[in-house]
Amino acid sequence: MRIHQDTITVSTPERESFVDITGKITRYVKEQGVQKGMIHLFVPHTTAGVTINENADPDVCRDLLFELKKSFPDRKEFRHAEGNSDAHIKSSLIGPNLTVPIQGGKLRLGTWQGIYFTEFDGPRDRKLHVQIIGE
Ligand code: ZN
Protein backbone atom coordinates (compact mmCIF):
# COMPACT_ATOMS: atom_id res chain seq x y z
CA MET A 1 0.00 0.00 0.00
CA ARG A 2 1.23 3.45 -0.88
CA ILE A 3 0.24 6.90 0.29
CA HIS A 4 0.49 9.97 -1.94
CA GLN A 5 -0.03 13.45 -0.49
CA ASP A 6 -0.16 16.71 -2.40
CA THR A 7 -1.73 20.12 -2.44
CA ILE A 8 -3.57 21.25 -5.55
CA THR A 9 -4.42 24.90 -6.27
CA VAL A 10 -7.95 25.74 -7.38
CA SER A 11 -8.61 29.22 -8.81
CA THR A 12 -12.17 30.33 -8.22
CA PRO A 13 -13.74 32.84 -10.64
CA GLU A 14 -16.35 34.64 -8.51
CA ARG A 15 -17.39 35.30 -4.91
CA GLU A 16 -19.58 32.20 -5.10
CA SER A 17 -19.04 29.37 -7.55
CA PHE A 18 -18.96 25.62 -8.08
CA VAL A 19 -15.70 24.74 -9.85
CA ASP A 20 -15.70 21.34 -11.56
CA ILE A 21 -12.44 19.66 -10.49
CA THR A 22 -13.30 16.15 -11.76
CA GLY A 23 -10.74 16.36 -14.61
CA LYS A 24 -8.02 17.68 -12.30
CA ILE A 25 -8.58 14.89 -9.76
CA THR A 26 -8.87 12.22 -12.48
CA ARG A 27 -5.50 13.33 -13.93
CA TYR A 28 -3.89 13.35 -10.48
CA VAL A 29 -5.04 9.77 -9.80
CA LYS A 30 -3.73 8.66 -13.22
CA GLU A 31 -0.34 10.35 -12.62
CA GLN A 32 0.13 8.49 -9.34
CA GLY A 33 -0.49 5.15 -11.04
CA VAL A 34 -2.74 3.87 -8.27
CA GLN A 35 -5.03 1.03 -9.42
CA LYS A 36 -7.19 0.53 -6.35
CA GLY A 37 -7.75 2.39 -3.13
CA MET A 38 -9.27 5.73 -2.32
CA ILE A 39 -8.63 9.42 -2.65
CA HIS A 40 -9.42 11.82 0.14
CA LEU A 41 -9.90 15.52 -0.60
CA PHE A 42 -9.63 18.11 2.17
CA VAL A 43 -10.31 21.84 1.94
CA PRO A 44 -8.25 23.79 4.53
CA HIS A 45 -10.49 26.87 4.39
CA THR A 46 -13.54 28.07 6.35
CA THR A 47 -15.46 29.69 3.48
CA ALA A 48 -15.09 26.97 0.82
CA GLY A 49 -15.87 23.28 0.53
CA VAL A 50 -15.97 20.23 -1.68
CA THR A 51 -18.94 18.18 -2.86
CA ILE A 52 -20.21 15.75 -5.48
CA ASN A 53 -23.18 16.40 -7.70
CA GLU A 54 -24.44 16.13 -11.27
CA ASN A 55 -22.05 17.33 -13.97
CA ALA A 56 -24.16 16.50 -17.03
CA ASP A 57 -26.41 19.57 -16.78
CA PRO A 58 -24.59 22.71 -15.51
CA ASP A 59 -27.95 24.10 -14.38
CA VAL A 60 -27.92 21.67 -11.42
CA CYS A 61 -24.98 23.51 -9.80
CA ARG A 62 -26.43 26.85 -10.85
CA ASP A 63 -29.67 25.91 -9.03
CA LEU A 64 -27.77 24.67 -5.97
CA LEU A 65 -25.92 27.96 -5.72
CA PHE A 66 -29.12 29.93 -6.32
CA GLU A 67 -30.84 28.10 -3.45
CA LEU A 68 -27.86 28.45 -1.09
CA LYS A 69 -27.73 32.21 -1.76
CA LYS A 70 -31.48 32.54 -1.28
CA SER A 71 -31.67 30.40 1.88
CA PHE A 72 -28.52 31.80 3.53
CA PRO A 73 -28.22 35.50 2.66
CA ASP A 74 -26.03 38.00 4.50
CA ARG A 75 -27.99 39.34 7.51
CA LYS A 76 -27.60 42.49 9.57
CA GLU A 77 -28.02 40.36 12.72
CA PHE A 78 -24.74 38.51 12.06
CA ARG A 79 -21.97 39.51 14.50
CA HIS A 80 -18.83 38.13 12.82
CA ALA A 81 -16.63 41.20 12.24
CA GLU A 82 -15.29 40.00 8.89
CA GLY A 83 -18.76 40.38 7.37
CA ASN A 84 -18.79 37.01 5.64
CA SER A 85 -20.92 34.87 7.96
CA ASP A 86 -23.07 33.73 5.04
CA ALA A 87 -19.93 32.21 3.47
CA HIS A 88 -19.01 30.41 6.73
CA ILE A 89 -22.53 28.94 6.96
CA LYS A 90 -22.52 27.66 3.36
CA SER A 91 -19.02 26.22 3.85
CA SER A 92 -20.17 24.24 6.90
CA LEU A 93 -23.24 22.96 5.08
CA ILE A 94 -21.22 21.67 2.12
CA GLY A 95 -18.38 20.35 4.28
CA PRO A 96 -14.58 20.35 3.98
CA ASN A 97 -13.87 16.82 2.78
CA LEU A 98 -14.74 13.96 0.49
CA THR A 99 -13.58 10.41 -0.17
CA VAL A 100 -13.88 8.72 -3.58
CA PRO A 101 -13.04 5.07 -4.30
CA ILE A 102 -10.45 4.25 -7.00
CA GLN A 103 -10.86 1.10 -9.07
CA GLY A 104 -8.99 0.08 -12.22
CA GLY A 105 -6.95 3.29 -11.97
CA LYS A 106 -10.07 5.44 -12.23
CA LEU A 107 -12.35 7.36 -9.92
CA ARG A 108 -15.37 5.21 -9.20
CA LEU A 109 -17.89 7.99 -9.67
CA GLY A 110 -21.48 7.42 -10.77
CA THR A 111 -22.34 8.17 -14.40
CA TRP A 112 -23.69 11.64 -13.66
CA GLN A 113 -21.37 12.57 -10.81
CA GLY A 114 -18.71 15.24 -10.84
CA ILE A 115 -16.50 16.64 -8.06
CA TYR A 116 -16.93 20.32 -7.26
CA PHE A 117 -14.82 22.75 -5.30
CA THR A 118 -17.34 25.16 -3.80
CA GLU A 119 -16.33 28.78 -3.26
CA PHE A 120 -18.34 31.14 -1.05
CA ASP A 121 -15.93 34.05 -0.51
CA GLY A 122 -13.83 34.37 -3.64
CA PRO A 123 -12.51 34.89 -6.13
CA ARG A 124 -9.14 33.58 -4.96
CA ASP A 125 -6.57 30.84 -5.31
CA ARG A 126 -7.52 28.08 -2.89
CA LYS A 127 -5.70 25.03 -1.60
CA LEU A 128 -7.01 21.50 -1.83
CA HIS A 129 -5.10 18.81 0.05
CA VAL A 130 -5.29 15.42 -1.67
CA GLN A 131 -4.28 12.09 -0.23
CA ILE A 132 -4.40 8.75 -2.05
CA ILE A 133 -4.22 5.56 -0.07
CA GLY A 134 -3.92 2.53 -2.33
CA GLU A 135 -1.78 0.33 -4.52
ZN1 ZN B 1 -14.99 35.28 8.29
The largest sheet, given as strand count, sense and whether it forms a barrel, is: 5 strands, antiparallel
- Overall, the morphology is elongated
Mean pLDDT: 97
Q: Helix and strand succession?
A: EEHEEHHEEEE
What is the fold-level CATH name, i.e. the topology?
Jelly Rolls
Number-wise, the strands total 8
For the CA atoms, what is the radius of gyration?
Answer: 16 Å
Total discrete domains: 1
Q: What would CATH call the class?
A: Mainly Beta
Description:
The protein has a single domain, classed as YjbQ-like (Jelly Rolls, Sandwich), CATH 2.60.120. 25% of the residues lie in helices and 40% in strands. It has helices spanning 22-32, 59-71, 85-94; strands at 2-11, 17-20, 36-42, 48-54, 97-103, 106-107, 113-119, 125-134. The strands form two sheets. Strands 1-8-3-5-6 form a five-stranded antiparallel sheet, covered by helices on one side. A three-stranded antiparallel sheet has the order 2-7-4, sandwiched between helices. A hairpin with a 2-residue loop joins β5 (97-103) and β6 (106-107).
